[in-house]
Amino acid sequence: MSISIEIDGVSVAAEEGGVLVDVAADAGVYIPTLCYLRGKPCLGTCRVCSVKVDGAVVAACTVRVRGGMTVEVDEPETTDMRKALVELLFAEGNHNCPSCEKSGRCTLQAVGYEVDMLVSRFPYRFPQRERDHASERIWLERDRCIFCQRCVDFVRDETTGDKIFSISHRGSESRIEVDTERADAMPIEQVRYAVEICPVGAILEKRVGYDVPIGRRKYEVHSVRDRALDQTNGSGAP
Ligand code: SF4
């Protein structure tokens, strides 16, 4: 059923039940995301898409639109909240962009530019999380992980449906695990999909580096905003 909602004071036509992030993008309004992938179930882990709906702060990827809804995206409180959440992710991990292979195609880095982040307002934690290089195909740099859980939910053994990535430990000790045997059996296309949807440089393909030169990488050619508003690029990741 076709309905009408209001985004930043502008009336927008949408199908009832659509995901607010998608409805906004289709109307030309960019809401940053790090865990949500268009067409995939909502994970709701990063909260970077926080907006106000009818005056309450919510993660836009968790909201299904209904008629008469009033949405505020370009609004000072939530704009700063989104920026703070991105800054927090930078402070909680080791994101040394100039030395990271994912620079220029890292969604966290690109979203950092979009929210006008210069430096984190939070103290940097410089975590020491053990790397996992055991797989023949996957290089796991845990201290860059933002725990979006995309890899856990969307990268599975193509025959059995079993998870290849999982989360172990709890709280601040939480970390991503990769099942070495299953990772070694991944088709190369699936390895590349895992690298593509990881929004940071935590999952890398072994023996591949700088295959796309700096300066020609996806967010250096088109901003994450432009890519999110043009969802014709395949993986669902902007
Ligand atoms: S390894 Fe990448 S995809 Fe997996 S949870 Fe961490 S940041 Fe997300």
Strand order of the largest sheet: 2-1-5-3-4
Helical element count?
8
Q: Tally of extended strands?
A: 9
The topology string of helices and strands comes to: EEHEEEHHEHEEHHEHH
**Considering DSSP H and I runs of 4 or more, what fraction of the residues is helical?**
25-40%
* Broad structural category: alpha+beta
The rough form would be described as globular
**Radius of gyration, whole Å:** 18 Å
The biggest sheet amounts to: 5 strands, mixed
Characterize the quaternary organization of these chains: single chain
Small ligands present: iron/sulfur cluster
Mean pLDDT: 95
Q: What portion of the residues fall into strands of 2 or more residues? A: 15-25%
| Contiguous uncertain segments of 5+ residues | none
- Between the first and last Cα atoms, what is the distance in angstroms? 27 Å
Name its key features.
alpha+beta, five-stranded mixed β-sheet, binds iron/sulfur cluster, single chain, globular, 238 residues, 9 strands, two-stranded antiparallel sheet, 26% helix
Written description of the protein model:
The protein is of the alpha+beta class. Helix content is 26%, strand content 16%. The protein has eight helices and nine strands. It has a five-stranded mixed β-sheet with strand order 2-1-5-3-4, with helices on one face. It has a two-stranded antiparallel sheet with strand order 6-9. A two-stranded antiparallel sheet has the order 7-8. The radius of gyration is 18 Å and the shape is globular. The structure holds iron/sulfur cluster. Iron/sulfur cluster binds next to helix 4.
